[in-house]
Input
Amino acid sequence: MGRVSQAQAEENRRRVVETASRLFREQGTHVSVADLMKASGLTHGGFYKQFASKEALIDEATVHAFDELTRLHEDGLEQHAGQRDTAQQALIDTYLSVEHRDSAADGCPVAALATDMAREPGDREAHRVYTEGVGDFAEWLATDDRDGITRLCTMLGALVLARATKGSPLSEEILTAARAALTAAG
Output
């Protein structure tokens, strides 16, 4: 089999990073390289031509996931004509929805990667990106009279608990109660 062009190699790398970003959010960073490459539609052997290590891929996939979150915030502001409070409430409603609960692969990296990042050494790029992303998300959620960290903790805790209790009536009750609390306090 011949060598791939530089453009194809870049496309393959992009595909692996996007796939890893989704799989890590859905299943955790313990997903094997073989499974990642298979999900990307590429061979296992090609992994080390693209990445120095799995840890390097975790770093890039974490950056990718937080870039998606940043774009979501920016798109929300655009959709709501720059009205931050309206964009924030729309995000809270979406974040605390059954759809978001059920789609971790496309969901918030803060919730999906929390336990994996707790196990990462503090000097790793993924840990740094995660920590910075949490701070940025909390800052985005802050208002003149509301602490963004408290809002983020409420949202994150509710989402994690709703995912853990999925399939029971309690799951949707958790989402509804958190939405109501954030709206009432809003």
About this structure: The chain is about 75% helix and 0% strand. The chain has a mean pLDDT of 91. The two ends are 60 Å apart (CA to CA).
